[in-house]
From TrEMBL, chains A, B:
GO terms for molecular function: DNA binding; DNA-binding transcription factor activity. Belongs to the LysR transcriptional regulatory family. It comes from the Bacteria. This is Hydrogen peroxide-inducible genes activator. It holds the Pfam family HTH_1. Keywords: Activator, DNA-binding, Transcription, Transcription regulation. Gene3D superfamilies: Periplasmic binding protein-like II (3.40.190.10), Winged helix-like DNA-binding domain superfamily/Winged helix DNA-binding domain (1.10.10.10). It comes from Amphritea balenae. PROSITE patterns: HTH_LYSR.
Amino acid sequence: MALETPTIKQLEYFVRLAESSTFRGAAEQLKISQPTLTAQIYNLEKTLNLTLVERSRSGATLTPAGRDLLTNARQVLEEMNGLLDQAAMMNHGPGGTFRMGVSPTIGPYLLPHILPGLHQTYASLKLFVRENTPKALELDLLEGRLDLVLISQPFGTPRLTTEVLFEEPLKLITPEDHPLAKLERVETHHLRGQNILTLEEQYSSYHQMELLCSELGATIARDYEGSSLDALRQMVIMGMGLTFVPSTYIYSEIHQPQGLSVRDVENLNLHRTLVLAWRQNSPNRGFYRQLAELIRSLVKTNLSDAKLSF
Amino acid sequence: MALETPTIKQLEYFVRLAESSTFRGAAEQLKISQPTLTAQIYNLEKTLNLTLVERSRSGATLTPAGRDLLTNARQVLEEMNGLLDQAAMMNHGPGGTFRMGVSPTIGPYLLPHILPGLHQTYASLKLFVRENTPKALELDLLEGRLDLVLISQPFGTPRLTTEVLFEEPLKLITPEDHPLAKLERVETHHLRGQNILTLEEQYSSYHQMELLCSELGATIARDYEGSSLDALRQMVIMGMGLTFVPSTYIYSEIHQPQGLSVRDVENLNLHRTLVLAWRQNSPNRGFYRQLAELIRSLVKTNLSDAKLSF
DNA sequence: TATGATGATAGGGATATCCTATCAATAAAA
DNA sequence: TTTTATTGATAGGATATCCCTATCATCATA
């Protein structure tokens, strides 16, 4: 039967034959028998419908067509070698570009503290980081557009594995001139009737806040939902209400809290739990687990100020 | 057994699978069965020692390594397609770049008249033309560095086929003020005692001239052998002797023979025979024969002034 | 003339490739 | 919840491909 595409082997044989200029010599270098080489070259010529080699008693010479196609054959083999090199690289350390999704409330404040450490441990690791809302991240992860997601619980677990990284406290921030800022200790009952600003509903903290407010008798400012922690901060400064933000945000962005007061609330153990998530059966789940462990230890050393718990 | 290099088929399967995102769909498009596809992808992964595809009940997704290698795989297939395209081109008309050797006493004066015609008939024909001395040309042809040689007889025929193209007369050229230039008719006996300039010994005309001179009683100017027809012409103008040059040279270069007289010698049927030569068993010998025929007819129409005989 | 090199050919065995039939697990529909 | 359809994995067997050894015919050379 007529073949359709030359074989990589046939191209290798052809190139070697062109360099050796005798079938026997080339066959020896290729560690195959001369009849095998003859047959494969013949097959190659048949699939291309061209005579590539001129046979004579004194050896083999390329025809004009053969000379021209030799260039192409070398290019094909070149690309194949590139592929093999790439694959070989990937056999040492994690291979490929991992796509990590991250919530906007986490990425800018956490990643700067851990990416250098990741690169140091996995020099060949390539991370493509993409921010999105939690719901979009979950869908992207489930459908394979992302490999990893760095997010705070609760996070859906239909076919996902989530590994807890750490818990971080949420801090109350108020305007500098707010009555609460002047108290020595802020108690839970002080929050009654206060206006609490939240992120949009797509963020998990929204529901957390909703629950909290109903318990404490505070109200949620539904008309002014923030789309970022920075936006929330600006709204607090403008006196539109109070809010809770994670401590990593505070320690990354608000070194001198101009116009703001950062407080803890007594007897209110408010925190968010950060997790790393991936598809349950992902072939790289072993590596992802290592990654989670590494992130945990990096955070422990680089963010000791933030009083995180593990 | 462990394989060494991925198969072209495996790469095709892999790329198609990446695009289809389900084994069954990809197999259907590839017109193979799903188990075959599964097996080949598995083989590919085994040769690369990498997991390329993440299998789930809802289809197949690429792993990070798979995504990165997909690019390489596409490049390999791209190059292979280039090779196939090239081969397909060569199936229409003569394929490849033909290397033609030509004597310096022929090329510059004959090729301008025939190359345009060749290109017109064989649009895809690519000719690489190289000038060299007849002896070097013969060796290059025998050892496969050239495919064709355009040269004048005699030309060695151990394992070569030579096809006569035409015969062209040799013309006597003298200085304008030479006594022979004033005669109405130049007879053979007028040449007795004259000094005849020739090309170097490597050229076949040298021996032809040697024989002629001994017959006519002329002498060969051994101290001043020319390395080109143009050199001979300059030497004639300088009054160093007479010489014979082919009529194609005259009709190409000397439109107004300044300082020169071009003459025929009565009863002296002096000419050179031009041939096209190739290796006896060359796979393209059929085409070469066509080529010789075409050159003959092109010369016949384009060089009718030169009084060639066929 | 004899020798050593070349590529071509014949016959047979090992392996790779591909198929059909079937399974187990899941997602979607009833 | 149950049923149905769809997913990829697996088993067994037919066929094609690849490769080998042994041998031949031809030619260059000693």
